[in-house]
Amino acid sequence: MRDEPRLLASLHQRLSPSRLAHSLNVADSAAALARCHGVDELAAYFAGLAHDICKCDSVDNMTRILKNSGYTFLDCECGNAKLLHAPAGAEFLRLERLCNEADILNAMRYHTTGRAGMSLLEKVVFMADLISAERDYPDVDIVRKLAFADLDGALRYVLRYIISDLTGNGETIHPNSVECLEWLDSLP
Question: In this structure, what is the dihedral angle of CA atoms 165, 171, 177, 179, given to the nearest 10 degrees?
């Protein structure tokens, strides 16, 4: 079950104009990647729209949503809005009955960290967030081309960069990201 009209109303209410524009761009990128890689385009579009639904929430609200759902917090997640908004968004969608499809909820939950054993939809949403139209980091054109040509290769490329960047800045790396990269590197 997906309730796109209610999702759109909620996004307009909850997100800043720039975050809403980003979500619309991610939805478009997710749909395009889905067409290219044989994934359900409507599911990808919906997950792309929804992926940052809690991004503008306070850490306290994200924490409350997750505690109420029985979420088990890792130390690196506590107080970290960058990491909490993804699982909080998935739980928000489930609790508000905006979506009950496990693959879409997982695509939202892991769009910032990745995880070992990601589904194709999860990979599409993860990459769509990084290649959306407004993104302008130095390698974005390389990542965009790679995402359409080799989804797993694009994931490896960005995860290596993210892990290296976080390590260089002395920041904590979510274990899901490390496990995701190790899993991708073990694939044939």
Answer: 110
Provide the CATH number for the domain around residue 168: 1.10.3210.10
What tens digit of pLDDT does each residue of 41-55 get?
Answer: 999 999 999 999 999
Under 8 Å between Cβ of 127 and 33: yes
In degrees, to the nearest 5, what angle opens at C-alpha 45 toward C-alphas 70 and 173? 50
State the total domains in the chain. Answer: 1
> What are 87-122's pLDDT values in tens digits?
999 999 999 999 999 999 999 999 999 999 999 999
Helix (H) or strand (E) holding 152: helix 151-168
Q: What's the predicted TM-score (pTM) here? A: 0.96
CA distance 173 to 72: 17
Question: Is 99 in contact with 108 (CB distance < 8 Å)?
Answer: no
Query: Which residue segment(s) compose the domain that 36 sits in?
Result: 4-186
